[in-house]
TrEMBL record, chains A, B:
Residues 134-162 form the Intradiol ring-cleavage dioxygenases domain. It comes from Pararhizobium polonicum. This is 6-chlorohydroxyquinol-1,2-dioxygenase. PANTHER family: DIOXYGENASE, PUTATIVE (AFU_ORTHOLOGUE AFUA_2G02910)-RELATED (PTHR33711), INTRADIOL RING-CLEAVAGE DIOXYGENASES DOMAIN-CONTAINING PROTEIN-RELATED (PTHR33711:SF7). InterPro entries: 1_2-HQD/HQD (IPR039390), Catechol_dOase_N (IPR007535), Intradiol_dOase_C (IPR000627), Intradiol_dOase_core (IPR015889), Intradiol_RC_Dioxygenase (IPR050770). The keyword Oxidoreductase applies. It comes from the Bacteria. GO terms for molecular function: catechol 1,2-dioxygenase activity; ferric iron binding.
Length: 295, 295
């Protein structure tokens, strides 16, 4: 009997020794997950060959990351975000058929009970920032409009803050709204141009970013959850392609298909129609939903 | 330019997108370590294909593990232990030349200032447990005795507790001692037979062990740190091969070469010589130190 079959540790057989202990796992899925985690973890350790000091630094980093979490802050999600793991899990769970709009991460600032508003409403409640008009269509993958699609939109303001981060400063539900399409599948609403903003960078994850020479910023974007009966729900963003951080989103949320041109408009007639005082930003972006089960 | 070269996320290029951000890392070693960690983490996620719920369970497990740590408890070291990572890091940092004794993990119960005792002393200060006599030699890899080797030994008692776990119940420095070899390289001391014991299993790591159908026990052992001028310091255990958990140490500390026969002796003459009341356990185990730089 080989030494590892007796349960004794050897460097060469380290994975088999450890995973061999899980034969009585209560759950087949957990057993499978722990087999992969153990194998990849041992592969990483064998490739890195950490010193005892480096190993202890890793232990203390993981400990601090857990201890930075509280009711309002989830530093492990942040770590997952900055290592691209959140986007990878999102991608794996949201593989779309050809032509359908791509997903990206939900983020921590969605609010469940935003108000349903009439099409064309202004979601900016405090008149702060540069006016913006956003319009487009909700389509299926054959290009047909989807009626009764529900569009839940939220965004940061012109200083890069969501309402929930500035309670008492921004009005409640500022820059949030829910819209429902008619038979033409069209949507439009008014807002202000959002600004890039940093993820929380005063904790262990921010320190790691600093040591890696990385900044903590997310490029300006609008969040969407789009639902329609018979279609896969789409959770995504659209991004300003001219944002200074568009090629270096700290959480890797940008996909090429999520770039939406933000056009600066000098059009007094349209400005008057929208109730804007002068020049404004104009975004025209269609979203394509996949039918349930469509691949 | 490929989409990932613009910093945009794709599932296929996820590793390149993330590690490509580290070009300005302040430290080459950190950059290398994070490249391996990111690559292996993404490989694991791609193989596991976690649901969003499973991903959140992992986030919450890591969070709880950090939050279980305090001044007295390091749950992340425990996690490293039960996944075999601590033993792997120990193995990588303590590769020994042929014939030298193998290392194993230090564990959390070493105390820096144990008393130096005369050879043959009894380290059991409360007369609890079954008497044991331990002897052997400290040798170099050519079989020559090493003089002035310093042997730092510590162990759990007959109920599986270290003195530091039972302050006020066990005497201070119970079952600890430091011995120094003479020209013959021989050592001997008296003690009691240690018992197996559980690692702390009331936290997230204990729950994980339970879900994996694993017990939390470490088989009975004695700890050693052996130092001698000109030789690599050896941190190791010896184990009782007849222990019920010898093939399933919760932290994978057992190596075949660390098994030391624990012989039950009925020898009234020797018992009288050692001051033992009757039958006793006898262990004869040599340790072989590698010269510094010897490979």
């Amino acid at each position: 009997m080989a030494t590892h079959e007796k349960g004794f540790f050897t460097e060469d057989d380290s994975v088999a020794v450890v995973t061999g202990r899980n034969i009585n796992a209560r759950d087949e899925r957990l057993k499978q997950v722990m087999e992969v985690i153990t194998r990849k973890l041992h592969e990483a350790v064998k490739e890195i060959e950490p010193t005892q000091d480096e190993w202890m630094q890793a232990i203390l980093f993981l400990t601090r990351t857990g201890q930075t979490c509280n009711e309002w802050r989830q530093e492990y999600i942040l770590l997952s975000d900055v290592l691209g793991v959140s986007m990878l899990v999102d991608a794996i769970n949201n593989r779309k058929p050809s032509g359908a709009s791509e997903s990206t991460v939900l983020g921590p600032f969605h609010v469940a009970d935003a108000p349903e508003l009439p099409m064309g409403a202004n979601i900016c409640l405090d008149a702060k920032g540069e006016d913006m008009f956003i319009e487009g269509r909700i389509l299926d993958t054959s290009g047909k409009p989807i009626a009764d699609a529900v569009i839940d939109v939220w965004q940061a303001n012109d200083e890069g803050f969501y309402d929930v981060q500035q309670k008492g400063i921004q009005p409640d539900f500022n820059l949030r709204g829910i819209f429902r399409t008619g038979p033409d599948g069209r949507y439009c609403f008014r807002a202000v141009k959002p600004k890039y903003y940093p993820i929380p960078d005063d904790g262990p994850v921010g320190q790691l970013l600093g040591q890696l020479g990385r900044h903590p910023y997310r490029p300006a974007h609008l969040h969407y959850i789009i639902k329609a009966d018979g279609y896969e729900t789409l959770t995504t963003h659209i991004f300003d392609p001219d944002d200074p951080y568009i090629n270096s989103d700290a959480v890797f949320g940008v996909k090429e298909s999520l770039l939406a041109k933000f056009n600066r408009m000098h059009d007094p007639a349209r400005a008057q129609e929208y109730g804007f005082a002068g020049d404004f930003w104009d975004v025209d972006h269609d979203f394509v939903l996949a039918r349930k089960g469509e691949t």
